[in-house]
Amino acid sequence: MINVIRSLVFYAGYFLAMLVCGVLFLPPAPFLPLRSRYRLLNLYNHFIIAWFRLACGVRHDFRGHERLPEGPCVILANHQSEWETVYLQLLHPPVCTVLKRELLNIPIFGWGLRLLHPIALDRSKPARAMKQVLTQGKTRLDEGLSVLIFPEGTRVAPGNRRRYNKSGTVIACRAGVPVVPVAHNAGERWPGRHWVKRPGRLSLEVGEPIETAGRTSEEVMAEVEAWIEARLAEISEVPRPATAAPPITDKPLA
Q: Where are the transmembrane segments (predicted)?
């Protein structure tokens, strides 16, 4: 029962913050330079991360932030919940997120996303979506933005595993930028398919940048997946499976 009460309190603050930010931040945001726009709109993200920790009794164990490179990079992270979509916007800003186009239609939240130059995909057209990721991803990197991709293609519950899509490493290899792997167990605290949050330790680790010069996207992807899975085996309370499910073919990216 205490977790239900905590979750209700959390969502009261969650939606109130969204409303306040929509009223105060969205109107001036389009008139700001892109980097200033990120700083303003990401105040919402900072609040949600802090409020989640306070309201739901979650302890943070974050490691490896000092490993982030100075310039733009491709961030590849496992995907378990909504938490990482909020937090990873703060990891190496400005960051362009690859996401499903439907999110842009959510009132207030989606309007803010549109202002951050995401790569919004129509998942019903996988071939077109893949081409869009590759072309727009390199463009964003050339503009000085980092690119965030969840290579599993969708949320994967703790204790499950799915093969990684290599589109992120293809972009990085073409642009000549490093890949930064990120592993976390956020789905154990913020379940992806249930609204009740769970107290406990939320661990996130940033890996060493993986250089892409002179390497194939397959080689880099294999290294990324091996690193993330090794870290997940250490930080997860739910045991990791030995093998991955087949990759998603009709939904290349979430």
A: 7-26
